[in-house]
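COMPLEX REQUEST
Ligand: L6N33NVT
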Amino acid sequence: MKKGVLLVNLGSPDSTSPKDVKKYLGEFLMDERVIDVPLWARTLLVKGIVLNTRPKKSAAAYQKIWWDEGSPLIVLSKRLRDKIDDHTSIPIVLSMRYGTPNIKSGLQELHDQGVDEVLIFPLYPQFAMATTETILVLAEELRKEHFPEMQFTSVPAFYNHPDYIRVLAESISEKLKAVEFQHLLFSYHGVPERHIRKSDITKSHCQIDGSCCQTASPAHQFCYRHQCFETTRLVAEYLELKENTYSVSFQSRLGFDPWLQPYTDRTIERFGKQGMKNLAIVTPAFVSDCLETLEEIAMEGEEIFHEVGGEKFTVVPCLNDREDWVKVLSRWIDEWAFSNPVEA
Ligand SMILES: C=CC1=C(C)c2cc3[nH]c(cc4nc(cc5[nH]c(cc1n2)c(C)c5CCC(=O)O)C(CCC(=O)O)=C4C)c(C)c3C=C
Ligand SMILES: [Fe+2]
Ligand SMILES: [Fe+2]
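STATUS: Structure written out below.
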């Protein structure tokens, strides 16, 4: 059998035009693992309401961060793929869950290269049904329908992997070594609380209260909230951060359901109002800089902080195509490809 890797990230619109943004948001938000309500309700909400208003607003936000080469998320993911490709001999293809290049074309590309054993590699450190799970489910549907001879293995969430923690912690320490900051905020993409309960394999562990995520449980294999806290705890331990000098918040909420709290925008506002002058922020749910880090955090977040009296707002870049990150990913891929040889 011949091995290959499908790296998968979230995806972006093809351009910043409201038409392309509408197409992208339509695909994204009609995913039953993103907006997890019955099809009729999702259709009414997304096609009847959200797609009539949000594309214009989102397109304006994308225009603020778009690069000459295209969407930062896609450009940075391509750079990462190319650098990994320089380190390893097995085929590496990049796909996006929404928009282009899509997962079907990625699998086709691997198939055309003779690959029949594929490592599906969702580029998300923490598991969520709206990210990792939707990739794995779609890939499996496509395999059954179009590539039945292929075999898939997938990379589990790496939120607590020592290599990931080290690289993330080093990236923070590099950015902050010459910066004075009073507090480091770990801002993760939010999800509706309902998603956490749905992913609870024990069906009773996740209460989304003060203690469940700190109490050992098999539910944590699929608990996004627990995994965010663990990433934070391990990075804080690595960097020897003192208690009360760091905390967790959740950004990018959409709609009226309760999402994971505390919300990032309100946290930034509260810090400023309490008199904090220097705030640093890191966004570990994203491995590539994107709309949510470059616009929502680095632009809007900074504006909120300044409006309430904050002075210095430092944003740690995502891992993107950092050399140590590329080396870690290449090694993980090589370990999968070469430590487990399939008999001829
Ligand atoms: C309504 C539901 C959404 C859920 C649940 C959600 C979870 C989730 N998303 C990411 C990563 C990214 N999201 C990005 C953009 C984005 N996310 C949503 C909605 C949900 N995300 C929307 C509507 C958008 C589009 C922009 C907008 O209109 O606000 C991005 C950036 C994409 C880019 O092109 O740069 C990323 C990355 C994670 C990790 C996650 C759950 C853990
Ligand atoms: Fe999102
Ligand atoms: Fe939990």
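REMARKS: The chain is about 45% helix and 15% strand. The longest helix spans residues 39-65.
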